[in-house]
Amino acid sequence: MLTVKSFTFSPIQENTYILYNEKKECCIIDPGCYFPEEKERLKAEMEHSRLNPVLLLNTHCHLDHIFGNKFVSETWGLQLHIHAQEKIVLDNGPASGLRWQLPFENYAGPLVYINEGENIHVGDDKLALFFTPGHSPGSISFYHEAGGFVIGGDVLFNGSIGRTDLPGGDFDTLINSIQTKLFILPDETKVYSGHGPVTTVGFEKMNNPFVKLY
Ligand SMILES: [Zn+2]
Ligand SMILES: [Zn+2]
Questions:
Q1: Which of 24, 110, 142, 196 is the most buried (most CB within 10 A)?
Q2: Which numbered ligand comes closest to the C-alpha of 132?
Q3: Which ligand is nearest the CA of 169, by number?
Q4: Which residues have CB less than 5 Å away from ligand 1 (the ion)?
């Protein structure tokens, strides 16, 4: 089973997740480490916990989720895995960084495209992929059934939802993604979001003002 550890990085306060198993094989999702000391903190955690990063994933490629892609790729020799519809968003990252006054060097290595219906493996542990567009055109969520959690990026937040005014965003598409992909999971499923605290599917179904089901 995979254990989740989170970091909050950059002035945008993005949540970076690492998932690891008993053999210490580790997957890094949305490395948002921006400042050198944040990159060092991520690296120190790997060394301290003796983790072996084997996989680099992005839920989507808005700048706050990709700041550390290059660092992670170069430090641990990993290729970036994204949905094909995020390539345009990834390519736009540095320009977006300049607008936010957060310049950074983009990942420029090979891309591995992943899509709904596939499973991604971290050692013997499985992550199911859901296509959850709306906040970004190629957003994907990673579901670990055995551990009862989903890493959803900026699709669903504790008490809120992702913004839909950025290029490729669409409100109805986002609501549909949440209702048909996330709200069908067991109520106790933990939702780890790209920003803010962890929540659960059941809590959001009851309380989220944007997508309440009751
Ligand atoms: Zn985003
Ligand atoms: Zn974000």
A1: 142
A2: 1
A3: 1
A4: 62, 154
Block residue for tokens 């320009």? 95
Tokens 């094989």 belong to: 25
User: How far apart (Å, rounded) are the C-alpha atoms in residues 97 and 106?
Assistant: 10
Q: Is the dihedral of CA 11, 55, 49, 19 positive or negative?
A: positive
pLDDT in tens, 136-175: 999 999 999 999 999 999 999 999 999 999 999 999 999 9
Q: How far is the CA of 22 from the centre of ligand 1 (A)?
A: 31
Rounded distance between C-alpha atoms, residue 22 and residue 45, angstroms: 16
The Cα 131–Cα 210 span in angstroms is 20
DSSP one-letter string for 63-128? HHHHTTHHHHHHHHT--EEE-GGGHHHHHTHHHHHHHTT---PPP-S-EEE--TT-EEEETTEEEE
Ligand 2 centroid–CA 21 distance in Å is 26
Tokens linked to 73 = 């790729």
Give CA–CA dist 155/108, Å, rounded. 26
In angstroms, what is the span from residue 180 Cα to ligand 1's centroid? 20
